[in-house]
Amino acid sequence: MEIGTSVLTAIGHTPLVRLRRVVPADCATILVKVEGHNPTGSMKDRMAQAMLAAAEADGRLRPGDTVVEYTGGSTGAALALVCAARGYRLRIVSSEAFSEDKLIQMAALGAELILVPSANGRITKKLILDMIDTAAEFGREPNTYWTDQLTNSASIIGYHSMGEEIWAQTGGRVDGFVQAVGTAASLRGATTPLKQYNPRLRVVAVEPAESAVLSGGRPGAHLIEGIGIGYQPPMWDPNLPDEIIPVPTADAEAMTRRLATEEGLFTGTSSGANVIAAIELGQRLGPDATIVTILVDSGLKYLSTNVFRASRV
Q1: In the chain, beta strands by DSSP E
Q2: pLDDT digits (tens, 9 = 90+) for 218-243
Q3: Out of 34, 51, 209, 256, which could bridge 248 as a Cys pair, Cβ 3.0 to 4.6 Å?
Q4: What is the dihedral of CA 71, 10, 189, 54, to 10 degrees?
């Protein structure tokens, strides 16, 4: 085994695992990319590394600068990891609407937290916009680089590696790809190489049923962290997915618990939503098809939430 030059070399090359017990009969093969194996336990390590590398390359980020971002937690932890490895100060705008575990992880990796209040502790369009406004204000300070994940196209490039890995791990057998939409970067980034290899790939976007704006619905409050910002994200490409599947929070939470107890895969709620949508697609495509979806992050980020509280002894 090679010795990495820094923790950043540990990003990517995550396992691809076949689901067995939560998948019904006569369904396609469902494979999950276990992104919780990244250093901070999230796929967001890929995009954080790509955004900062791009900013360093074109001079927007220089030694001694401060990085600023708004985030529900996983992007913040990923940025904190990369900033720690590269020597930057990091200020994160977040909220107590997101899991306490994520807030603790960001702080533990050296991020300075600024928390924006949320009505009833839920994720809403207003909360996201308030967080963006706060981050933008900090971003105007001298020697500060605002990564602005919702508009930063370098994050899309950061996910190309995920698509390349999936194609290699399946031996070129991917009929469908399913991914939940937050910034839309991971859906676009992973799909780019997959579509190049297989132009007939069926692409499915996933969003919270309570805030199904991509499907033409109204924004609403929900508890699926990391997705469903309440409006179309700037990097959203409506021509990319073949369909959009809305998943209710309660169903996503139930599948997340099933993945832990029946498959031994400990992950977060958006991952549960992904699996539900992948199974729905898989039942339509049939047993000869292969569907890949993403287990976005580790369940260790959600220990303090209602997702796993019901399973405590």
Answers
A1: 16-18, 29-34, 66-70, 89-94, 112-115, 144-146, 176-180, 202-208, 243-247, 290-295
A2: 999 898 988 999 999 999 999 999 99
A3: 209
A4: 70
Q: Model's pTM, two decimal places?
A: 0.93
- The set of residues, in sequence order, having a beta carbon less than 8 Å from that of 249 and lying 6+ positions away, is 208, 209, 210, 222, 223, 224, 269
Say if residues 268 and 304 touch (Cβ distance below 8 Å): no
CB 297 within 8 A of CB 34: no
| Chain segment 66-111, per-residue pLDDT in tens | 999 999 878 999 999 999 999 999 999 999 888 899 899 999 999 9
Cβ-contact 14, 165 below 8 angstroms: yes
Helix/strand/coil (H/E/C) assignment for every residue in the chain: CCCCCCHHHHCCCCCEEECCCCCCCCCCEEEEEEHHHCCCCECHHHHHHHHHHHHHHCCCCCCCCEEEEECCCHHHHHHHHHHHHHCCEEEEEECCCCCHHHHHHHHHCCCEEEECCCHHHCECHHHHHHHHHHHHHHHCCCCEEECCCCCCCHHHHHCHHHHHHHHHHCCCCCCEEEEECCCCHHHHHHHHHHHHHCCCCEEEEEEEHHHCHHHCCCCCCECCCCCCCCCCCCCCCCCCCCEEEEECHHHHHHHHHHHHHHHCCCECHHHHHHHHHHHHHHHHHCCCCEEEEEECEEHHHHCCCHHHHCCCC
Pairing between strand 290-295 and 144-146? unpaired
Three-state DSSP class for 161?
helix
CA distance 182 to 188: 11
The per-residue b/e assignment along 72-97, b for 16 or more CB within 10 angstroms, e otherwise, is bbbbbbbbbbbbebbebebbbbbbeb
Q: Which amino acid is at 152?
A: N
